[in-house]
Amino acid sequence: MPISIGDFTILPISIPPLPSFPVATVHYIYIRQNNTRSPTDDDFRTLFFANVPSDSTEMHFRALFATMIGAGKFASITFEADRKAAEPAVSTEPAQAARLASIGKKRKREEEAERAREEEAAKLPDSWTRKLRKSGSTATVQLVDERSVDLVFKAISKAHKTKKYPVWGDGVGDKVPSLGEAWLKSHNKLSYPEISQVEESVDMFFTLFNQKEREAAELAKRMRNEPDEDGFVTVTRGGSRAAPARTQEAEEAKQRMLEKEQKKKDELSSFYRYQMNQRRKAEQAEQIRKFQEDRKKVDALREKKGKFKPET
């Protein structure tokens, strides 16, 4: 197995036999320095991991790095699937509030923290004690410093030479929930939470929704005749409505305006094209006329030369 493929360095890890698969095997993780389209101050100490094991947890990677480069070098890990899952599938944000989110002033930090706690309480409890990763999943790992990154690549090179691969799960023990039968039983139990817990989450959800709807309506009412910093007034639909026009309608109006301007440009361009063609034709006609005149002069000179008789 090569030590690298393209920009990625290959880290082989030894996976011990399990009751579900009683054969030891080797899994390959692909690692490179993190480089994103929007560079951050932590890129120098961040690694990008591809093809992480399906049973990966933060504790597994913490134990893995402790085995490779020693304890205290691992800072944090972010799984791509977890980052996407953190975005709520059903938003408590009303459509009107979402449209005005960029217009209103920022809340104080205390209010933001309180709102975050309320939104967390509005979520239903998770039914899995431990998540499995899809095949080929990715993650980003932050280490404490740049030197730790260099130590990781040196440890990988050493593992390839000695063929002594770090053992996946070594040192984790019972620090993470176990898989198998116990994992499925706990999922079945958590899938049916107490009715009081469900009612509490639903009540909090609609409390947040109604609160944001009221805030959006009040903000829209204040903005009806209030010019912004550029001197523009928010357009509203109907005299009795407080909400501003939808973004989609504004985009449609903008598109109609652009199409109208493009039509004018095309018409103007056609007019100029007609003028240029007419000018070109006039220039060609003038050149033909001058050519005919010059030709007549040459013919006249030739005829005059033929009649000339020198004196004797």
Structure in words:
- This protein has a six-stranded antiparallel sheet.
- It is elongated, with a radius of gyration of 38 Å.
- It is α+β, with helices and mostly antiparallel strands and 312 residues long.
- Helix content is 49%, strand content 12%.
- The chain has helices spanning 58-69, 80-85, 95-99, 109-121, 146-162, 181-190, 195-223, 247-307; strands spanning 4-5, 8-15, 25-33, 46-50, 74-79, 138-143.
- Among the domains are: 4-88 and 133-176, Alpha-Beta Plaits; 253-284.
- The protein has eight helices and six strands, in the order ββββαβαααβαααα.
Strand count: 6
Strand percentage lies at 5-15%
The description of the largest β-sheet is:
6 strands, antiparallel
Looking at the structure, the CATH topology of the domain at 4-88 and 133-176 is Alpha-Beta Plaits
User: Can you say what the CATH homologous superfamily of the domain at 4-88 and 133-176 is?
Assistant: RRM (RNA recognition motif) domain
**pLDDT averaged over residues:** 80
> Helical stretch count?
8
Q: N-to-C SSE series?
A: EEEEHEHHHEHHHH
The CATH architecture assignment of the domain at 4-88 and 133-176 turns out to be 2-Layer Sandwich
Please identify the top-level CATH class of the domain at 4-88 and 133-176. Alpha Beta
Helix content: 40-55%
Radius of gyration of CA atoms, rounded to a whole number:
38 Å
Strand order of the largest sheet: 1-2-3-4-6-5
The separation of the N and C termini measures 113 Å
Apparent shape: elongated
Strand-pairing-aware structural class = alpha+beta
Task: Enumerate the spans where pLDDT stays under 50 for 5 or more consecutive residues.
Answer: 239-245
